[in-house]
Q: What sequence folds into this?
């Protein structure tokens, strides 16, 4: 009986070849590094039309022209082609065959960075052996098991000019909305020109120490113009974008009103004793791509 | 907005004439160098050895390019964050280096060394690496080849676009320009 049940269960699984995972990850990473999203391009043009600073307009022109060149010639938008961060929504009815899933993802990273003429920026050990792994592996992989028989893969090439300016803090609940808002503005203000503005600001509020960081990173993968479905957080996103753009930092930090293209906020339930807030900054080259197997 | 055309290496007279906020187009030679190369240059100075490159009047460009595609002189080559080079920069300025090209803030010790040596800090726009690479016509390996994208190379540039962020008097365009648009 049990044996029959197991056989039936296995037969219901959808098999996906590890090689197909590799091929998809490779394709998505090359695309992300060479082709900026239409949403980012549209936001750059919209903000340029409102930018009062001449230098700011000049910088935005350079950014737009660079994105056009990179796509046409299929070269990297930025020389920092990042560390590959891979988000996977793994359907619970999927069975990976002919290899390990994580090895398949890393093989996709290796092939993308070698065949796509992307820079290899990963070192083996943060302190004791900072030698280059020479193929940009390993990727940072975040997997979530979901219903269904599909694999949804989202990749981002995360540059570290902006990653280094990101920050997390665990507030007491009394800090409230105002505390969270002030913190986001402080992080952006402190980053100034270092994080290659106009930036995309990913904010994660709630959960535990690591949840806040993870959902802040996830917020960076959202399309510009899409808001949090919760009206409180959608309003917070609008208020924060408005205030960030009053900081004066401007394109490339050389003054102006285009400091951020978007502020995306994600939240998660949290403990009675805390209000974690993480701010993950991303430069104007907000490079990500999504695909499904 | 008028672009000022300048020739590299950068002589003292031209350096002093540049003001924070000026936009420039540079032609001539620049040297590349970032974290690992700076560490080696600094160790060289500490040991009293001669540097593998004469930096008198030269500019160092903080860049670690992507590999060049076939048919290209150089890969995508935009600036990296400058503050990481701060611990090593005053010693290089004291040897006659005329300036740096990078992006982002500098520490006070760097700015003091710039004023002392009449040096200029330029920023290229971060993240416009494919566009900037069009102004790099040729590149040659100079030293530290084992560092891969962090090796020191000599770039021959034409009309390389940059902005004067900190001039020889220590005026800082990041501070001056940001203050004009700050509303909170």
A:
């Amino acid at each position: 009986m049990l044996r029959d049940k197991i056989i039936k269960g296995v037969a219901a699984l959808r098999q996906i070849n590890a090689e197909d995972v590799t091929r998809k990850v490779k394709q998505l990473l090359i695309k992300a590094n060479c082709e900026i999203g239409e949403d980012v391009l549209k936001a750059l043009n919209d903000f340029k039309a409102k930018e009062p600073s001449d230098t700011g307009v000049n910088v935005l022109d350079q950014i737009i022209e660079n994105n056009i060149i990179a796509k046409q010639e299929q070269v990297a938008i930025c020389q920092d082609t990042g560390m590959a961060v891979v988000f996977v929504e793994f359907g619970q009815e999927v069975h990976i065959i002919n290899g390990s899933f994580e090895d398949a993802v890393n093989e996709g990273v290796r092939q993308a960075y070698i065949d796509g003429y992307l820079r290899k920026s990963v070192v083996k050990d943060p302190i004791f052996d900072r030698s280059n792994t020479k193929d940009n592996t390993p990727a940072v992989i975040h997997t979530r098991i979901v219903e269904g028989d599909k694999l949804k893969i989202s990749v981002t090439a995360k540059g570290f000019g902006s990653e280094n300016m990101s920050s997390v803090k665990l507030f007491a609940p009394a800090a409230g909305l105002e505390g969270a808002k002030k913190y986001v503005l402080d992080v952006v203000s402190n980053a100034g020109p270092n994080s290659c503005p106009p930036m995309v600001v990913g904010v994660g509020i709630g959960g535990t120490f690591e949840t806040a960081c993870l959902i802040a990173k996830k917020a960076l993968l959202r399309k510009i113009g899409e808001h949090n479905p919760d009206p409180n957080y959608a309003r917070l996103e609008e208020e924060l974008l408005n205030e960030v753009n009053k900081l004066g930092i401007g394109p490339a930090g050389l003054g102006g009103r285009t400091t951020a293209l978007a502020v995306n906020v994600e939240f998660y339930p949290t403990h009675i004793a805390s209000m974690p807030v993480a701010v993950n900054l991303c430069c104007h080259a907000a490079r990500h791509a999504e695909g499904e197997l | 907005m008028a672009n000022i055309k300048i020739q590299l290496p950068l002589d003292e007279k031209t350096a002093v004439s540049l003001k924070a906020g000026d936009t420039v187009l540079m032609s001539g030679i620049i040297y590349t160098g970032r974290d690992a190369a700076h560490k080696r240059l600094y160790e060289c100075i500490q040991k009293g050895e001669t540097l593998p490159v004469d930096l008198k009047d030269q500019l160092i460009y903080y860049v670690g390019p992507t590999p060049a595609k076939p048919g290209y002189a150089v890969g995508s080559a935009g600036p990296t964050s400058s503050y990481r080079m701060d611990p090593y920069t005053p010693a290089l300025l004291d040897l006659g280096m005329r300036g740096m090209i990078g992006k982002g803030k500098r520490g006070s010790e760097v700015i003091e060394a710039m004023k002392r040596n009449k040096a200029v800090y330029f920023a290229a726009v971060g993240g416009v690496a494919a566009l900037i690479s069009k102004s790099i016509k040729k590149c040659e390996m100079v030293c530290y080849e084992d560092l891969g994208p962090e090796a020191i190379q000599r770039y021959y540039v034409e009309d390389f676009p940059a902005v004067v962020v900190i001039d020889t008097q220590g005026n800082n365009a990041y501070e001056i320009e940001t203050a004009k648009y700050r509303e909170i």
User: Anything to note?
Assistant: The first helix of chain A runs from residue 2 to 12. The longest strand of chain A covers residues 260-270. Residues 2-33+77-158 of chain A form one domain.
